[in-house]
Design a protein that fits this description.
- The chain has a four-stranded antiparallel sheet.
- The protein has a single domain, classed as Nucleoside diphosphate kinase-like domain (Alpha-Beta Plaits, 2-Layer Sandwich), CATH 3.30.70.
- Helices cover about 40% and strands about 20% of the residues.
- The longest helix has 11 residues, at about 120-130.
- The radius of gyration is 14 Å and the shape is globular.
- By secondary structure, the protein is of the alpha+beta class.
- Bound molecules: ribavirin triphosphate (RTP) and magnesium ion (MG).
- It catalyses: a 2'-deoxyribonucleoside 5'-diphosphate + ATP = a 2'-deoxyribonucleoside 5'-triphosphate + ADP; a ribonucleoside 5'-diphosphate + ATP = a ribonucleoside 5'-triphosphate + ADP.
- Its EC number is 2.7.4.6.
- Belongs to the NDK family.
């Protein structure tokens, strides 16, 4: 399987719950490596630009409001099949539907406060990584 990069965000609810380390531990146990990381408070325009694909959706306002409600941890994860592997570790968008043992099943509260974001394709990952990090800020392992 090809080595990929994916953009992960630990959302404000999980930062507030103090489970950043536990979530990163799950990535590492699954063979993903953190190759860039920062904690940031997103502005409204940061969040709107990041989730631009959802701008016409009814939940967009709530999504932007939630993502700007507190600091987040933005990371680039690298590893074999990183995009799908991260999505599997995260679980379904709605924590009520997330498989047992996934990050959202264990740490998320609701479909809005759902603990983590992960790129949904290698194309999205390339855009999302570049949205937050300059190439010189990445420290590749592979
Ligand atoms: P994310 O982008 O945050 O990783 O989440 P996802 O791929 O699992 O879900 P996506 O469809 O991309 O939606 C982005 C975020 O919008 C909120 N959402 N609310 N009320 C709703 O029906 C609804 N649908 C999506 C969620 O917080 C989701 O994470
Ligand atoms: Mg998504």
């Amino acid at each position: 399987m090809a080595v990929e990069r994916t953009l992960s965000i630990i959302k404000p609810d999980a930062v507030a719950k103090n489970v950043v380390g536990q979530i990163i531990g799950r990535f590492e146990k699954a063979g993903l490596s953190v190759i860039a990381a920062k904690m940031v408070q997103l502005s409204q325009s940061d969040a709107e630009g990041f989730y631009a694909e959802h701008s016409a959706r009814p939940f967009f306002k709530d999504l932007v409001s939630f993502m700007t409600s507190g600091p987040v941890v933005v990371q680039v994860l690298e590893g074999e099949g990183a995009v799908l592997k991260n999505r599997e570790l995260m679980g379904a968008t709605n924590p009520k539907e997330a498989e047992a043992g996934t990050i959202r099943a264990d740490f998320a509260e609701s479909i809005d406060a759902n603990a983590v974001h992960g790129s949904d394709s290698t194309t999205s990952a390339a855009r999302e990584v570049a949205y937050f990090f300059a190439e010189t800020e990445l420290c590749p392992r592979a």
